[in-house]
Design a protein that fits this description.
Blueprint lengths: L6 E5 L4 H12 L3 E6 L2 H13 L3 E6 L5 H13 L6 E4 L14 H29 L2 E6 L12 H20 L5 E8 L6 H4 L3 H4 L12 H14 L3 E4 L1 H12 L1 H11 L3 H4 L1
Parallel strand pairs: 1-2, 1-4, 2-3, 4-5, 5-6, 6-7
Helix pairs in contact: 1-2, 1-8, 3-4, 4-5, 9-10
The structure holds NADP nicotinamide-adenine-dinucleotide phosphate (NAP).
């Protein structure tokens, strides 16, 4: 896909993977709409894009609020802003056992990333389908593909996003609209400060996978867009874990349980 002159929308663009992706898209010549809740941090990413000669604007919105998302898209539609590229990167969620998770927290875990990606995508699709072109990239977590203990609600939300991404790709077959899952391993973003306790619960086996930077994930998103990839997994070591999981799922479960944060390991 030609990124120069495209209109791209990035969620979670105030921080981490989303902010790095917004900057990378702008460097490749796309005009970028940045979505997240916090105006101050969004505006600082917009300023850095503009200083580098790119085009960007900030749109503060709580993506867990379907009506707020609709109101924003009504405004964008009225201005004729119809993104041809969407990167759904907004996400949050602590890693908790089921009995530690209140119903409200579970709803929040599901709301961002999964509901948010759904709300945004449903408003972007009509214009993409009419243009017979577009690309939706959903940023996901390894836990969408490999089970590990200590993060039941987080895990369910990433499975929901993965299932949605897969089904959407099949729905859109032959329409000219592409759909990609980008799955990074651990990323050196602010995610761990914003969601306390996550690092402590990561399975020790995951320490074998090198941490990647938000810029590396952004590069993978650009690669997926330019090379029309269905799924991009990084770094290479994570691909080996996925291959091992496919070939020997019980071995992978054993590894997750032995090195992870299950009830048995904390009692
Ligand atoms: N970091 C990792 O190791 C890693 C690895 C694999 C996958 N992932 C996944 O990738 C996604 C992005 O992670 P990240 O590392 O970039 O995290 P991050 O630095 O914490 O960024 C999360 C972004 O989501 C936005 N956000 C959260 N709740 C929102 C809401 N209700 N409405 C609108 N925006 C919201 C945040 O902005 P505001 O707070 O301003 O709204 C922020 O821009 C997450 O789903 C995460 O699970 C992360």
């Amino acid at each position: 896909m030609n990124l120069r002159g495209a209109t791209a929308l990035v969620t979670g663009a105030s921080s981490g993977i989303g902010a790095a992706t917004a900057r990378a898209l702008a460097r490749h010549g796309a005009g970028v709409l940045l979505l997240a809740r916090t105006s101050r941090t969004l505006e600082s990413v917009v300023s850095s894009v503009r200083r580098a000669g790119g085009q960007a604007e900030a749109h503060p919105v709580d993506l867990s609020d379907a009506q707020a998302v609709d109101r924003l898209f009504d405004v964008l539609d009225a201005r004729g802003l119809r993104p041809g590229i969407v990167v759904n990167s907004a996400g949050a969620g602590r890693w908790l056992f089921t009995e530690e998770t209140s119903p409200a927290e579970m709803v929040q875990q599901m709301a961002v990333p999964y509901f948010a990606a759904f709300y945004v995508t449903r408003r972007c699709l009509p214009a993409m389908l009419a243009a017979r072109a577009g690309h939706i990239v959903n940023v996901n977590s390894p836990v969408a593909r490999i089970g590990w203990p200590g993060a039941a609600g987080y895990s369910a939300a990433r499975h929901a996003l993965y299932g949605y991404t897969h089904a959407l790709r099949l729905d859109l077959h032959g329409t000219g609209v592409r759909v990609t899952s980008v799955i990074p391993g651990r990323v050196s973003s602010e995610y761990f400060d914003r969601n306390p306790g996550v690092l402590e619960r990561a399975p020790r086996a995951a320490n074998l996978i090198p941490t990647v930077t938000p810029d590396q994930v952004a590069k993978a998103v650009i690669y997926a867009l330019q090379h029309k990839r269905r799924v991009v997994v990084l770094p290479f070591m994570l691909r080996l874990f996925f291959a091992l999981n496919a070939a020997a799922p019980r071995l992978m479960e054993w590894l997750a349980v032995r090195t992870g944060y299950g009830h048995a390991s904390v009692s």
